[in-house]
Amino acid sequence: MSDLLSIGAVSRRSGVATSALRYYEELGLISAERAPSGHRRFNRSVLRRIAFIAFAQRIGLTLDEIGAELSRLPPGRVPVGEDWGRLSRTWHTRIRERIAELQRLQEGLTECIGCGCLSLDQCALVNPDDCEAERGPGPTRWVRQRGPAPGETRG
Fold first, then answer.
1. Position 118 pLDDT exceeds 70
2. How far from 3 is each of 9, 16, 25, 39, 88, CA to CA, in Å?
3. Regarding the domain delimited by 4-90, which CATH topology (the fold level of the hierarchy) does it fall under?
4. Cβ-based neighbours of 36, under 8 Å, separated by 6 or more
5. Which one, 69, 104, 115, 119, has the greatest CB density within 10 A?
6. pTM score, whole prediction
7. Cα 7 to Cα 52: distance, rounded to the nearest angstrom
């Protein structure tokens, strides 16, 4: 059995579209060799990197953050369980923050969405004279409550 897989085989095995695989390669998240025909051939170990990318996206990491995490893997060898574990241990805080954010969202859905505005009855109490509009577009109360996103600044 060959250790090299076509892009179609990687797509089928990982559940990730070939277009996304090409994009991940373009970003340097995964790498492929070129066959004499010019077709991409991926080492079988790329499936673990793709699983890592998919999981990291599910917990809210951006592709830039994922790239930074993947760059911490040892060069020149296939990562082992200990390597993957070292990366994922740093995510515990991020996961707890995400859980807290989802809980705030769930609570906010029962009264309003943080002034976008879905609750006209309550707006006279929570947002008199539409003062939230002066703070900017969208759910301004929600954005203030959760704090700035990584790399985001507030004026």
1. no
2. 12, 19, 18, 15, 26
3. Multidrug-efflux Transporter Regulator; Chain: A; Domain 2 (1.10.1660)
4. none
5. 115
6. 0.63
7. 18
